[in-house]
Each structure stands twice: as C-alpha cells, then as structure tokens.
Amino acid sequence: MSTDYQRAREALGARLRELRFSCPDGRLTGRQLAGALGWPGSKVSKLENGRQNATPEDLKAWAHATGQPDVYPELASRLAGFESHIRSWRRALAGGFAPVQVDLSLEIERTRDLWMWEESVVAGMLQTAEYARCVLTRYSQLLATGSDIDAALRSRMKRQEWLHQPCRRLHVLMWEAALRSLICPPSVLAAQLDRLTSLVGMDTVDLGIIPFDAPMKIVPANAFWVLDARLVVAEDWHAEIWLDDHENVTLYNKVWHTLNESAVYGTDAQNVINNARRSLNSV
Predict the structure, then answer these.
(1) For a designed S-S bond to 82, which of 8, 19, 195, 217 qualifies (C-beta 3.0 to 4.6 A apart)?
(2) What sign for the dihedral angle of Cα 83, 86, 91, 92?
(3) Which of 206, 209, 205, 204 is nearest to 193 (CA)?
C-alpha cells in the first residue's frame, strides 16, 4: 500500500475521531458509537486509526450517529480523493470486467508514449484474443467476478488499434517468465509467441525481453504501465493503483529504465522468444 494512500486514510480516520469527540449532545466513546451503529467495537478503532477502508455507507452512518449529517459530503469527498488512486478489484469489478477495460482504454487513447513492464504474463497490448481470454478467465475465477469476459475481451482487442495510429509508441519490457508461464494451453501460448516474434521490429513497438540469465539491478516484480510520464497504473492482487503525482511517476520511470538495462532487443529478443517456443514441443 502506498505511503500517500495510507496517510490519506489516516487523515480521514483522524477526522472521524474529531467528529466523535465533538457530537452536539456530548462526546461519544468508541464503544457507544459502535453500539449505536450495530458495529463490532473494533471497527470504530480500525477506521479512526487508518487500518480499515471506510465505505460511503460507513461515512454516512458515522455522520448521522455523531449528530453531524451535514459533514457527510466532506467525508465522501475525502474518500473519493484517495480511492481514485487505489482501485480495489472487489469494488471495481462489481460491475464486471468490461467497465474496467473501458476506463483504461480511455486513458490509453489520449496517450502518445506508453511504457510497460510485465514480469509473468504477456503484455495486454500484445496479447492474442485466445491468450487474453485465458488470462481474463483465470482472474474471473480468482476474484469471483461476473461473466462478461466476451465484452471485456472485445474492449481489450479494440485497444490494440492504438498500435496502428500515427505518432504512437509502445515501449514494452517482459521478463522471460512471461514467455513460459502456462496460464493457457500450450497451443494458445505457441500462437501468442508467434505473434510476439512478428512484432519485433514493428515501427510503433519497442519489444525488450529480459532473459532469465541476465544480470538484474532490481527485483523483476510488480507489473506497471507509465502513460506519457503523467500517469502510472500498477497492479497488485487486491487492487489496481493509479498514481499521477510527479514523485511516483518519476520513480516508476526510473524502475522501467533500470530494468531496461538488462533487456535484449531485435534478433536477440527473437532468439529468447523462439527458445521459449521450441520448449513447448516437449510439453
């Protein structure tokens, strides 16, 4: 969890504590407030100390229970301000995969240069339809989301039209593990690797591969995208993180370029891909 996010959550908690202390009818204890709301006693403490995410419903109930309903819009604004950066998969996918795909596509459409790092899966902008279907299905099974995989797949494939627009450039780095992870049947992975080979040398794509035996200056972890040096989108198991502050965007740019020092391109990249392709013959 990012430091900025945690600070914002703690600041919201401090504001909630202040409201509990300043009730018009007198200060409430945490136990009294929890009882009035029908919550476990620990929930009040966790919210006030920034150890649990509040929901809009939690904030509205808190404002009413402390006799200050007019303060709810302020609390909701605070929550929206920091949740816009940490997008819980559980909440974001409540309406299915497709809306999430659309949101990201809108950001990419206004982007001229896109830097991507993937450590264990082929980058989405380069995926074949069948490979993408396998990836989306695996996530759907893990996160118990809706069944709109077809709609999400169409959105992901349409996003790749960006690669053929003038003045666009995709700078993508992948660890060799992404070429070998059997997240899909071997035949699907083979077709995906064939597609990657065909993209080496494409005018709008710089495809770098980091071989397993390449010396590394940092740990090859945490997939992320940098859009025009203005926005970072990083993925974790619990959430998608959107960062637009200069300090974090600069950090992720530095990470990408540090990883890039270990990458190979052109014929050398094709050789790594082809070796992974040949290894499928024994699977």
Answers:
(1) 8
(2) positive
(3) 209
Domain count across the chain: 2
Residues 49 and 130 in one domain: no
Which whole number is the average pLDDT over 116-133?
97
Helix (H, G, I), strand (E, B) or coil at 112: coil
Distance CA 45, CA 31 (A): 9
Distance of alpha carbon 52 from alpha carbon 43, whole angstroms: 8
pLDDT tens digit sequence for 36-53: 999 998 999 999 998 888
* Residue 83, pLDDT score: 63
Using 50, 70 and 90 to split pLDDT, how confident is the model at 104? confident
Here the tokens at position 248 are 């974090």
Q: Which of these three, 34, 65, 84, is where a domain ends?
A: 84
* Whether pTM exceeds 0.90: no
Q: Name 203's Cβ contacts closer than 8 Å, sequence gap at least 6.
A: none
